Amino acid sequence: MNESDRLLRKRFSELAGRASSRGKYEYSEFLTLAEQNELCRMTFDKGSAPFALHGGYDGAERKIAVFGSEELCGYAESPPLVCLEASPLSARFSEDLGHRDFLGAVIALGLRRSVLGDIVIKENRAFLFCLESVSAFICENLKKVRNTPVDCRAAEAPRLAAERPEPVGINVASERLDSLIAAVYRLSRSESQELIAQKKVFVDSRLSENPSCSPKIGGIISVRGFGRFVYEGISRETRKGRLVVSVRIF
Question: What is the pTM of this model?
Fold first, then answer.
């Protein structure tokens, strides 16, 4: 374990202990998949508060850790997350804007990446998830993305959760993780195994280093550099003994 991971674990332990001793929810900033993996692998002291991960919408990759529970704190938590919608003031004269453009524009405001969650692009608009503490600042200061003037305001996140990708069927030899990754991203089995060996594959926020494991139904598989998909199980078996499985690819 390197020094960065030790400090991260120390921070998680402090938040869990403080939530337990104060009877009040404590929150991290947005965590990468690797940081979520470190958290999920930790063993906490018996008196520490439990935690849950929230990203603002179903299928989020970057999430905050919420330490505490309704039983411990006496009330239901409301994670300090806000969804903002940034859209061109004039669709007619807008440039073709992507994830990198919106992220760069927000970071250029002087914010840390850890206060920002996922950025979902839909029809040249961006839905940005951020900590509540910086939401007003972003709305007031995000006026341009590249050369395109934009308007930024709070938006309803639930509609994003409802718009999950349609399920698609893929033909695989088995439910092995390496087989699924190869089929979804049109790679060879050896290429998908190399991604796993390079620690680029996460299943439900946990690093997966076992190419032969089978994800559970509903499991979210994230592959750095490629994207993520939800595994939804076997649809049918072909006459040649292969499997047609259902996935939702983000």
Answer: 0.78
Q: Report how far residue 198's alpha carbon sits from residue 224's, in angstroms, rounded to the nearest whole number.
A: 10
- Both 155 and 188 in a single domain? no
Number of domains, the chain: 3
Query: 72-109 burial by CB neighbour count: b if 16+ within 10 A, else e?
Result: bbeeebebebbbbbbbbeeeeebeebeeebbbebbeee
Contact 18, 47 (CB under 8 A): no
Classify burial at 216, counting beta carbons within 10 Å of its beta carbon; exposed 0-12, middle 13-18, buried 19 or more.
exposed
Domain C-terminal end among 39, 73, 107: 73
* Position 238 pLDDT exceeds 80: yes
133, 187: one domain: no
Residue carrying the six token digits 């990708």: 165
In terms of residue numbers, what domain contains 31?
3-73
Strand partners, 144: 149
Mean of the pLDDT values across residues 174-185? 96
